[in-house]
Amino acid sequence: MNGLLHTARLPLQDGDLLAAVDLGSNSFHMVVARYVLGQLRVVDRIKESVRLAEGLDARGGLDPVVRDRALECLARFGQRVRDIPAQRVRAIATNSVRRLAAPHAFLMPAESALGHAIEIVAGREEARLIYLGVAHAQPPKPGELRLVIDIGGGSTECIIGSGFEAIERESVQLGCVATTRRFFDDGKLSPKRWQEALAEVATQFQQFASGYRALGWTEELGSSGTIKAIGGICAELKLTKGAVSADALPVVRDRLLQASHIDDIDLPGLSDERRPVIAGGILVLEAAFEALGLNRMQVSKAAMREGVLYDMVDRGSSLDPRETAVEAMMVRYGIDRTQAARVEATALRLFDQVAVPWSLDADDRLMLSRAARLHELGLAIAHSKYHVHGAYVIEQSDIAGFSRQQQQFLAALVRTHRRTIPKSPFEALPDRLMAQVRRSTVLLRLAVLLHRAHEGDPIPQLDARADGDTLTVTLARRWLDARPLLKADLFCEPEMVERIGITLAFETA
């Protein structure tokens, strides 16, 4: 499970295999594809109904039976991707893992079972990946906007996009499993209960419906199993040819409500596996149709897992969404590009000298580079404690392309790049990232100190060597003697970084 980002650093070659694992709230999916002539060809798909959302309690705990079911599934997935290089495998956890009170307690054995790191993504990042998958499966018409809705087990994502870019992204805490549990936990169905639930669910969509409708779209697409199942029911009832329409949906709902209990639902084409959660799915979709004024929704062949695959392809090219996101933040917060470039160059100069003995890889280098570019972000808010402000913005923002762990890693570097190093920024990170974040912190701190005066002249000598958790830095004596303020700062730094287990020493030559 080496590396933070699990992304292909070298260009993809014809014949390379890639795998995406989707830890959904209802089902776990895995898709394996081969990269051929610039395209992805799916060679294997595995789906297992885990129903992770069923195991969640109100305090964010996870039922042991559901937990074991999830780990057993991931172990089977791990067997399939055992021979695929780690940088070609990406596993994504969504709503149910986001809601866990102690996600690391689940992720540690989950990563062990799968044999790969698992990223938690925020709802809007999940929405971006869903749209990317749908857009590649059904190429959009140039210049036209399309609406994509994905009803998962724990959340529903609504996206307006153009081409391959998601323009508007929303994620609401409504999914087929969670909504069924919330409104029909006892299994009983009735028209009255349905209307009461519909009114409450609709309010979630109404929060953004007016903005979406004002922007508009020319095409409506639904992805994932719930909408696919509802489209199949519409086709079996001969209401449509597989789409979901505003006229067909009430017929499906009325047919469902002929049953007084979930176990007695009789909808043609509905699998036994999906019967326990279909009520919540239809309820959410009906609320979306009403709030957004939808007419006819085609069913997409793709979902988030396909989007993850295409995102991996983009990350191996100039289309990496994370670089675009960092650039957008630099513009938005008016970051001093010249100073950021100085700090970045010096941080990477140090990194390249110690990467091998410190077991730092290309992904760690990218994270250090991004932290250097964003370290002064908080100055747009206030100079006092600007490192704290910057870290908060990074951790709390929806940054395209980044998982929750990646944002926490980036925020930790920005938070600790100056002044006293608290323990709190590291507490949100999994143990497997502790060595990288501690070591990267020291490199960024040194780069910031060395450029505190905003000098444009190059540093004549900067040699670093690492041995275990000891870092020794050599500077030119004459150059350092001419900078007494810097010399005083560096004198205090060993005591600062000792708090995170790094022994720092300076030499002059």
From TrEMBL:
**What's the domain of life for this entry?**
Bacteria
Q: Which residues form the Ppx/GppA phosphatase N-terminal domain?
A: 31-315
The entry's keywords: Hydrolase
* Statement: the UniProt record of this protein carries the keyword NAD: no
Domain (Ppx/GppA phosphatase C-terminal) ranges: 322-491
List, alphabetically, the Gene3D superfamilies matched: 3.30.420.40, Exopolyphosphatase. Domain 2 (3.30.420.150), Hypothetical protein af1432 (1.10.3210.10)
Q: What SUPFAM superfamilies does its record include?
A: Actin-like ATPase domain, HD-domain/PDEase-like
The organism of origin for this protein:
Lysobacter korlensis
Q: Which InterPro entries match?
A: ATPase_NBD, GppA/Ppx_hydrolase, Ppx_GppA_C, Ppx_GppA_N, PyroPPase_GppA_Ppx
Q: What is this protein called?
A: Exopolyphosphatase
